[in-house]
Amino acid sequence: MGYNISRNISFNPERGKGGVMNKAELINKVSEQTNVTQKVAKVIVDTLFDGMKESLQNGERIEIRGFGSFMVRNYGGYKGRNPKTGEIVEVPPKKLPFFKVGKELKEMVNTTGKG
Fold first, then answer.
1. What pTM value is reported for the model?
2. Distance between CA 93 and CA 91 in Å, rounded?
């Protein structure tokens, strides 16, 4: 059974300009839209996020059509400077998660966004 909740999730307008949707609100929306208990919705949301974290940890790319893609970017090490002491320090290479917004989401935000 498939559910299309992407078009029905909205921010809480009482929080002011822009708003923020947190995990608890996402769980509430999943519960409402799919007619499952909040406990089941929490399992769904946790499973989704855990799977995404695991994929990124394994260096895999996550692509969600119409939304965007998540990937891990590798950044090389470099010589930096400690701003407090001025001492030159070695900054080790690192990997960071990166999100690239999809065309459909970008267009939707630009045409319907109020901020």
1. 0.71
2. 7
For the chain, give the secondary structure using H, E and C: CCCCCCCCCCCCHHHCCCCCCCHHHHHHHHHHHHCCCHHHHHHHHHHHHHHHHHHHHCCCCEEECCCEEEEEEEECCEEEECCCCCCEEEECCEEEEEEEECHHHHHHHHHHCCC
For residue range 47-99, what is the model confidence (pLDDT) as tens digits? 999 999 999 999 999 999 999 999 999 999 999 999 999 999 999 999 999 99
Q: Which amino acid is at 103?
A: K
Within 13 Å, how many C-alpha atoms sit on residue 93's CB side? 5
Query: 10-32: string of b/e by CB count within 10 Å (b at 16+)?
Result: eeeeeeeeeeeeeeeebbebbbe
